[in-house]
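Risk register update: the risk of archive-format incompatibility is retired. Evidence:
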Amino acid sequence: MKAAAASVLCVGFAAHDFVFALDRMPDAPTKYRARSFRSVGGGNAATAAVAAARLGATAQLVTRLGDDAIGDAMLAEFAGYGVDAALSRRFAGCVSPVSAVLVDDAGERIIVNYVDPALPVATDWLPEIPDGVGAVLGDVRWPEGSAAMLMKAKARGLPAILDGDLPGCPPALLDAATLVAFSAGGLARTTGEAAIEAGLRRAAAMCSAEVMATDGANGAFWLEGGRLAHCPAFAVRAVDTLGAGDVFHGALAVALAEGRTLAQAALFASAAAAIKVTRFGGRAGAPTRAEVEALLG
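Archived output:
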């Protein structure tokens, strides 16, 4: 299904990741040697914006950065991917968010992240939604900013999508969205329910938004007409799961901005995430639209 290029705005977390590939995860406080290394941008909203741009969408990013060399590198990387970060803001004296990421031979990862507590959470500087934007995506790592922009999108009748990842979603943030796309862990943390269906039903009772959840190789689930709907994951060999959920959310936002149904958007996003996990290096593995369409057949 081909569609005109969409325009999406992503708001929330951007970081720079230092990614180390190991044969196995550390199990003792000693020295380990990585078999490969990559320095790459990360963060939920930022990676989703990169994924959207790789899929041919016009992608804008609203995030908070420090006035340091890491922030310089992040802005240069955004520009290289075609992501417009002009609406973001840098704060004097603050350190830009950074992460150390360990990826094992099975593609699983451990992330240690640092966010400068001096980065302001205030939202009075946030812009109105630019003309032409077809969907807004926010994350839970900057809930104040996400809530503000999602509510603006909702008021304009646009898809207002929340990436419901860990550490979980405050109730007020859920109600700012028209769709909450949880990770399995974020759903469990938010609702207290370990099972996907029970968690989705609990989340649906907590807010007015549609709810869905991704569960890795088990695929994506959502409630449709009171029933559990399911989009199976594509069978691939995982090399690196870092950023896969963010790529899913970015692709989901693109598909919804193009006017696809939730089922169609879930399939499109699942294909994008499946391609990403076959590639090492976080969001550097985000696929192009041609690659996604080839997998979809």
